[in-house]
Structure formats: C-alpha cells, structure tokens
User: What shape does this take?
Amino acid sequence: MAALLLSSRLPTSTATASIAAPRPTPCSLSCPLTAAKACRRGGCILASSATSPPRASPAAAQPFRSLPPSETTIVVTGAMGYIGRFVVRELLRRGHPVVAVTRPRSGIRGKNSREEVVSDLAPARVVFSDVTDPGALLADLSGYCPIHAVVCCLASGGGGVQDSWRVDYRATLHTLQAARSLGAAHFVFLSAVCVKNPLLEFQRAKLKFEDKLAAKAARDPAFTYSVVRPTAFFKSQGGQVETVKKGNPYVMFGDGKFCACKPICEEDLASFIADCIFDQEKANKVLPIGGTGKALTPLDQGEMLFRLPGREPRFIKVPIRIMDGVIWVIDGLAKVFPGLEDAAEFGKIGRYYASESTLVLDPETGEYSDEKTPSYGTDTLEQFFD
Assistant: This one.
C-alpha cells in the first residue's frame, strides 16, 4: 500500500542521456577539438574517457535569435528521458535541427538498443555519449557545430545522494561547459519548483547548478539562460489511475489536503521549454510553471478519479506519522550502514512530496500560492485521467 501511495506522489525522473549516427566531419574554428581519442564501437564513433575537463576557451556566441528555426541547431541532453523525448519532438516540430544526446544504453536498466533510440528520436541526429565525462562529451559534440542553444533535461534516476550530485550537478555542469566551448549562446535548464525549499539532495544539487548558471551569465554578456521550474507532470500524478479503475479505493496521506500542485501536460511543458530559446523576455530568469486550472490536492485528484466513471468515492487514509517513523529508523541505520544512505533519502523524498506543495512560495506570506504559480497550456489533469 505504501509503495502504491508513493508511486502516485513521487516525481517522474527525466533520465540521463547521450549519441548514435556516425560523427560528421568536425567543423572549423568555432569548435575546439580535444585530445581525447576516438574509437569505433558497434559501427558508431565514441570518444574515449578523458581524465580532466576540457580547457578550451569559450567560442564566440552565435547570434541565433535573428535566425529562422531551420538554421538554429539545438542540443538536448537527457534526450531519452521522460521529458527529454517530448522536448526533442517539439523542437523538431518547430523546424529546428536537433542533436539529441543520450546514453549508449537508455531506458529502464538500459533496455533500449541504439537502433531503437535512433528510431525513437528520428529525425534528430542522435549522439551516444557519457555526460559524466566532460572530455568525452565535448569531443562527441565537437562535430555538430554551429550549436546555438542547449536544453538540459538531465536528472538522476531516483534522487539517490551520490547520483544526485553526479547527474543533477556535475553532468549538468559538463553540459554547460561543452555548450559554451562550442559557441552555444543560450542554455535552458529543466529544474523543479521544489528546489525553492531544498531539503533533499537532488534539490540542493539543482539549486547549486542554478547558481553556477546565473554566475556564468553575469560574467559573460554574450550568454543567456532560462531556468524552467515545473510543478509536476501528469504522469507523476497518475500512479493510482488503474487501481481506482479496477474498483479499489484511493490511498492518501492524512485528509489528502497536506499539499497541492498544478500539474502540467508533458507536451505543454516541452512547448514552454522551446519558447524559452527564442523569447528574450524569458532570458536570464527563473521560470516556475504549472498547468492550466486550479491547484489540486490529493483529495481533489481522488475525487476526480471517482467522478469520471460516476462512482462513489472510497478512500484509505494513511497517517503520515507512519512514514516519519520508518524514515527515522532507516536514517539512523544509514549512519551505521552507509549502504542504506539512498534508502533513507528515498524515504525523505516520499515524505517531502506527501506533505509539501509543488507551488510557488509567496515570499510575503511564506505560504504556497496557487495564484502566484503561472499556468501554461490547455490540457488538464482530468483529461489525462479520462
């Protein structure tokens, strides 16, 4: 029961990503090459690991906002992640040449083959690379210039302590370093609205990168950024849809009013992210964004699920103190057995999303605000549930 409840509250990870198709002939002066050697594996060129970050000086930024989409190349890292796929499709729909960076083995437990990845992201140019290796990433992208902008959709798989800093901070930083070295003038970072109240490692990691990004733009007038902080995705709220359809009750913590969110449709979020590339009004800003309609509590969502088929609502209310007790025990054990560190963190993540709203925090009142959380798009959560 606890697993079922948490599955409907935890955020869906966007995943790490990276490269396919043969690397084109490297372009000229604006694209510095590294000393990393390339090797052929399975008919596709991959760069060998580098022991130190690239030291190339930043190239001249591209004046891309005056160009049509068809002449504006966008790199997407985390392209096979949950949101990354939607972003790639939206950019392609708008006519951009897209370079989609993903891992050689993507998907859950690396189940997707390279051929499947290339087919899924077509007609984007797919690059399989290791975003945790800065030298390899720079070498693998150096043949795709000019690069005008980058969208980073990287996220740790589950929010584990070490994984959060490895992906949400360092791999994201490597993406920024490669982007600027290859002339990218704008960087869109997919963050999360919950970083405003950083109690978890992945939130701290994302917030630290946001600070790095803002500092970079402050030092470099030719470079701009947009930080996109979505509230929640439709899929992350749909963990109990099939369970309720089968006649089971809806499970929630307490009275179901601890928290609220304004979930946004994945296609709408991808469209907002794509808007950030050309919209000068969105440059050098942190942009919280939610979906259309009012904020919804778990109770609201449960009632919605029963209203759609015309059934009487049935709820199981779980005291949140139960979760507090479990976290306290695991957290204590993790101090003695370090291998339990991630288990303790996962418990804290579940507790956070069970009790904290994913809305904008009003600085004047100190309360989460539905009204101050911007809305975007047209699709509603009720349409998704239906």
About this structure: The longest strand covers residues 224-230. The two ends are 23 Å apart (CA to CA). Residues 97 and 167 are 26 Å apart (CA to CA). DSSP finds twelve helices and 13 strands in the chain.
